[in-house]
Amino acid sequence: MPAWLKLDQIAAAGVYSVCGSLLLVGLFTLTDKLTPGSLWKEIMEEHNNAVAILFGAWAIAIGIIIAASIHG
Questions:
Q1: Which positions ≥6 away from 38 have C-beta within 8 Å?
Q2: Total domains, the chain
Q3: Residue 39 burial (10 A CB sphere; 0-12, 13-18, 19+)
Q4: Is 51 contained in some domain?
Q5: CA atoms of 72 and 70, how far apart (whole Å)
Q6: How many other CB atoms are there within 10 angstroms of residue 37's CB atom?
Q7: Which of 13, 27, 39, 63 is most buried, with most CB under 10 Å away?
Q8: pLDDT digit string (tens) for 1-60?
Q9: pTM for this model (two decimals)
């Protein structure tokens, strides 16, 4: 195994990835419960592009916050 490839760093990246993904899904679910109507229905069934763009921006913002908290 190369010297720059450390198993503990790979494991930590995996754990943080899983935690970040679960946090993102949990926050989407919480946001869906706190807003009127169903975000998932608006995006998938009604093809509401505005809601999809809003959620995409929201997901990027939460991802940046999660990455900053993981990075330190």
A1: 32
A2: 1
A3: buried
A4: yes
A5: 5
A6: 11
A7: 39
A8: 677 778 887 888 888 888 888 988 898 889 889 988 888 888 899 999 998 998 899 889
A9: 0.66
DSSP assignment of 35-56? SSS-HHHHHHTS--HHHHHHHH
Say which residue the tokens 């990075």 belong to: 71
Q: Residue 27: CB partners within 8 Å, gap ≥ 6?
A: 62
| Residues whose CB falls within 8 Å of the CB of residue 7, separated by 6 or more in sequence, listed in order | 1
Range of the domain at 59: 37-72
- Count, in order, helices (H) and strands (E) of the chain: 3, 0
Distances, alpha carbon 44 to alpha carbons 38, 39, 40, 41, 59, in Å: 10, 9, 6, 5, 16
Q: How far apart are CA 24 and CA 62, in angstroms?
A: 7
